[in-house]
UniProtKB/TrEMBL annotation:
This is Inorganic phosphate transporter. It catalyses: phosphate(in) + H(+)(in) = phosphate(out) + H(+)(out). GO terms for molecular function: phosphate transmembrane transporter activity; symporter activity. It is found in: Cell membrane. InterPro entries: Phos_transporter. It comes from Acinetobacter baumannii.
Length: 235
């Protein structure tokens, strides 16, 4: 990672003055917020890239990085990878040949792999929670989606249409990096088939679903915050 960082920083720097971490962080943050590129953006990205490599290489293993340092490093990596994406999209990166582009791509992949890392215990816990939740509430979910969104039961054709639309929408959102909820997409697709089939919508169920969507966010924020506070008392 250190070698990739150094080489990428050299490609970006092009004899520009080096900036401190604080200055580079401020420049990149402002660029991400305003989307207005200034002459300092690329030098700031180069400085941040070089310093990230130095900081990470000072530890023999990523597990050895202190918690406080991890937070700062991840934040700087996020600033870097987001700036790379913006500059690349605007075709504002310095001109490079194919080998140099590959080098930058490898560096960006390294950043993404660090940022998107999820511990195995988190994956297992989420899978268990989803599996247990579905085991307990599957019947209610199936009945609500298949029989209660519309005034009549959903037909096989409607089910296939809704699933195809949901699949296509989720795949497109994933490709574009847009956060979507599979539940929202599928329920909306089912409602669309009911309207198209002139089956009519059951507005009581629709209102209940919409209410659940509205209150889910604040409720989960409070629950997760409360659980985190509780865990901190024992850890």
């Amino acid at each position: 990672f250190h070698q990739l960082s150094s080489q990428t920083a050299v490609l970006l720097n092009q004899n520009q003055p080096e900036l401190t971490d604080e200055k580079a962080r401020a420049v990149l943050t402002k660029y991400i917020q305003t989307k207005q590129q200034t002459p300092e953006v690329v030098p700031a990205l180069a400085s941040m890239t070089d310093h990230l490599g130095e900081r990470v290489s000072s530890y023999s293993n990523l597990k050895d990085i202190p918690e406080a340092a991890i937070s700062e490093i991840r934040n700087d990596m996020y600033l870097s990878t987001t700036t790379f994406k913006r500059l690349d999209k605007a075709d504002a990166l310095p001109k490079m040949d194919d080998s140099q582009k590959k080098l930058v791509k490898d560096y960006r992949s390294s950043l993404d792999s660090f940022l998107q890392y999820i511990p195995n215990w988190v994956k297992v816990a989420v899978a268990l929670a989803l599996g247990l939740g579905t085991m307990v509430g599957w019947k209610r979910i199936v009945v609500t989606v298949g029989e209660r969104i519309g005034k009549h039961h959903m037909t096989y054709g409607q089910g296939m249409s809704a699933e195809l639309v949901a699949m296509s929408t989720i795949a497109a959102a994933d490709g574009l990096g847009m956060p979507v909820s599979t539940t929202h997409v599928l329920n909306s697709a089912v409602a669309g088939t009911m309207v198209a089939n002139k089956s009519g919508l059951n507005f009581n169920t629709v209102k209940t679903i919409l209410s659940a969507w509205v209150f889910t966010l604040p409720a989960t924020i409070c629950l997760s915050g409360g659980l985190y506070w509780l865990f901190l008392q024992f850890v």
